[in-house]
Design a protein that fits this description.
The chain has about 270 residues and is an alpha+beta fold. The protein has helices spanning about 5-15, 40-45, 140-150, 155-160, 170-180, 195-225, and strands at about 25-30, 50-55, 60-65, 65-70, 80-85, 90-100, 100-105, 115, 255, 260-265. The two termini are about 30 Å apart. The chain binds a DNA duplex (16 and 16 nucleotides) through α5.
DNA sequence: CTGGTCACCTGGAAGC
DNA sequence: TGCTTCCAGGTGACCA
């Protein structure tokens, strides 16, 4: 589920509530997600005030005086703030208990990650190789044009490579290329400067729209029982195979690119 | 380095 | 109804 906007919305939802508060206990109900959980997390964090919550790509960074807890939601993870006494569900693998509230990690597929770094989190082997932040000022058409030179791979999987650009998952890759009017199969290295500019503008607009949509439901999914899941976006093409394009009415087509389902409008995208 | 494939895990939907 | 198969929003590891 989570792509960059979902992770960022989660972060923004927690920001006014958690930093400054002390962790009282940690409850780990599963020994490992994608990786084994850090050992003795309770001893490590009990009594420690959370200093801040940052984000790098889709990784959330919980800052403490003596290190950083790195958290990734994987494909199916979500964080909720619940009453600490609330009984955990089947896939609620980890609680960080702040007084009478718990920050609860639910992740049915367990593709998420929880890691502890004592030193500079930016130097962690999973963080250091991450690519550019798509919402940063440094992400421009010129940057994308430079980055794509000499690359034969299709632009869609290229955009999803977190070592190039972070945060663009399967949904927003299709959606952004639709907005840009670019065929997802186009070899990255063949894109003109102008088309790179269109793609960058489209990515920022797509992510901004998702952030705006998430902001309006933020309170719900941070505090409620989570049954509503992630906020719903009106997609242009994603998941709409055979349905009419919202712009031109042509049938939306599906294909596979790099093992991932890809949606596009053959009339609007070239 | 590049591009392509696989695996990790569970659950829901579709097919028979 | 029940069993089987396929698919899912991520990404690191591995291969040629």
């Amino acid at each position: 589920m989570p792509e960059l906007p979902e992770v960022e919305i989660t972060r923004r939802g927690l920001l006014p509530k958690l930093p400054g508060r002390k962790i009282h206990a940690v409850v780990a109900r599963h020994a490992a997600l994608r990786y084994p959980l850090p050992r003795a997390l309770g001893r490590l964090l009990a009594g420690q005030p959370l200093r801040g919550i940052d984000r790098r790509g889709k990784y959330l960074l919980f800052r403490f005086d003596h290190g950083t807890l790195i958290l990734h939601l994987g494909m199916s993870g979500s964080l909720r703030l619940v009453p600490a006494a609330e009984p955990p569900g089947k896939h609620d693998h980890l609680d960080l208990v702040f007084g009478d509230q718990a920050l609860r990690l639910c992740d049915p597929r367990r593709f998420g990650a929880v890691l502890w770094v004592k030193d500079d989190a930016a130097a962690h082997p999973l963080i250091a190789p991450l690519g550019i932040e798509p919402l940063s000022a440094a992400f421009t058409g010129e940057w994308l044009h430079d980055a794509t030179r000499g690359r034969a791979t299709a632009i869609k999987p290229f955009l999803m490579d977190s070592h190039v650009i972070v945060g663009i998952g399967n949904i927003y890759a299709s959606e952004s290329l639709f907005r840009a009017g670019v065929d997802p199969r186009t070899p990255a290295g063949r894109l003109s400067r102008k088309r790179c500019e269109r793609i960058v503008t489209a990515i920022k607009a797509t992510l901004d729209a998702a952030l705006a949509a998430g902001g309006s439901t933020l309170r719900d999914f941070i505090q409620s029982d989570g049954s509503t899941g992630w906020f719903q976006q009106q997609h242009f093409v994603y998941g709409r195979e055979g349905e009419p394009c919202r712009v031109c009415g042509a049938r939306v087509r599906a294909l596979r690119l790099g093992q991932r389902s890809t949606f596009h409008c053959p009339h609007c995208q070239h």
